[in-house]
Design goal:
49% of the residues lie in helices and 13% in strands. The chain is of the alpha/beta class. It folds into 2 domains: 6-139, Rossmann fold, CATH 3.40.50.2300; 146-220, Arc Repressor Mutant, subunit A, CATH 1.10.10. Strand 1, helix 1 (15-25) and strand 2 (31-37) form a beta-alpha-beta unit.
Amino acid sequence: MNQEPIRILIVDDHRIVRDGIQSLMEEIEDIQVVGTAADGCEGVAQVEQLQPDVVLMDLTMPCMDGVEATRLLTAKYPHIRILVLTSFITQDKVFPALKAGASGYLLKDTGSVELIDGIRKVHNGEASLDPKIASMMLAELSRPTPDVRLTPDPLTEREVEVLRLVAQGLSNKEIADRLSISPETARTHVNRILGKLHVASRVQATLYALRTGIADLNETE
């Protein structure tokens, strides 16, 4: 039985970008563009109306920038994934977007194959980060973080085990295979972990795991 296509909304203030991505996706059977928006305000309104699965989000836009739009949407619609697609790779863009709840961060020079793969990954609950982001994450993790605290709602032993696998970049199916559990159970564990840690994405959960010592950098290679 064929699965329903991944419904995406493109939010970008450049029409050539919106049209280019829409044209690309017309050739992809499992991805359907359900709408486009020219700024953050229109993007939020379109999400409320169309309820897409994934939002491709530019960052620098009029009316409302992509970080604020991401923050609003992940708070109101936690089931909708935000994949940032931008030209910016500076810390003042990357980390606010990830902290706002983006599930992925790709650059506009990303190839079409990588973009399609990124959409599929975030739709499946996985993280999708441009390789150039890795060094920035390492630099961020090397800073002193005295404000980090363990969650007041402690993770169970199994949840800690699942979080370590999340930090290694494993998908829910891969976690299920590793732990000999069903993908549905793996998804439930991941969702419960995100809730306990009060984070909106696997990227944020990974940063938490690394900062608190639950996982280490060697495990994520």
